[in-house]
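Sequence, structure tokens reproduced for reference:
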Amino acid sequence: MASPRQRTPGNLCETWRSGPRSRQPLPGSSINLQKMAEPQEYQSKKLMSDNGVRVQRFFVADTTNEALEAAKKLNAKEIVLKAQILAGGRGKGVFNSVLKGGVHLTKDPNVVGQLAKPMIGYNLATKQTPKECVKVNKVLVAEDLDISRETYLAILMDRSCNGSVLVGSPQRGVHIEEVAASNPELTFKEKIDIFEGIKDSQAQRMAENLGFLGPLKNQPADQIKKLYNLFLKVGATQVEVNPFGETPEGRVVCFDAKINFDDNADCRQKDIFAMDDKSENEPVENEAARFNFLDLGGSVKETQVYQAFKLLTAVPNVQAILVNIFGGIVNCAIFANGITKACQDLEPKLEGTNVQEAQNILSNSGLSMTSPVDLEDAVRKAVASVSKKCHLHPDPLGKEFHFSIRRVASLITVKEMVVSLGGK
């Protein structure tokens, strides 16, 4: 009998970490710096199925009756019931209904409704969920297949290759990075030409490296090409299948998958980004998305600046924020108005479009100010403003303590602020 399978993080080893970026919040907060569609498991499976990739037969249910009917329609030897949340560790999670485990197996379709009842509408706590847990609104009802052999397969964007790479290992593992570190000879990589696309020979070679030999290798090779076509079609930065497995009957199946999307492709992939379930986000993250948080380009409005700084200043352990604005693109006056409404203490440096107007706004705002000479001086002043409290090295640009601009900006109660607005 197949055991419940857990989703595995994406990057396989150090050389591939230049590919997909993870959603990292500001230190001490839950505000993510990226907008990114995160599909639920059933959505990833549907995307693959719709594009010819072989997955388990499944249905999605949001009521106990739907779950029961789905189990009967499957007519499978064994059925797996999975809570649909984005967090990992579902198998060992606990519901506030006292049910243990967000993944359950059964051979009796008539009990699926009973299993789903304490899952749907209840909160599930795992190692990856916030303290408030996550409410389960849907369950996946799927046929559970035995796996005779498990492998790992992924397609990633790799900046060092100026395109995508196919990555695989015949040794599937819950922590695939450890497999790559301990047995590097068991990891294989194929660079895919961005113009030519994946070649039949590459797909066949990867299938062989994964241990699919003889006539069987045609199946995984075909699935690999279909996965690559899906990768391009949806604007993905990563398609990871773990496990990419073989059944005792000789069928090659993508049992579990994780798909990451290019966060800049939302205008082109509206259907994909519409799948993003924001109900699992922290409220502050949804608020940040409303105002295009930390993406203050040339069309920025005063309200966006104001809301962005309100979100930053609401983070309890923010000590300093360094802002570097190219004034040739952004109207400094708009930015200054937004800052003065959101912050209490400020140290600005202003150069660029409408700089005099911006200076007047800040001068009349009642905010505490000093002016850095240039961006390097702005960094030093930002770090110096909190160095005593945070025990930072006095020379942030020295060898012992090098502070990047972004790091200072996320130093995370804005007591001091350095603003460098430069441009034409």
The chain has three domains: 57-143, 149-274, 285-388+403-419. The two ends are 68 Å apart (CA to CA). The first helix runs from residue 41 to 50.
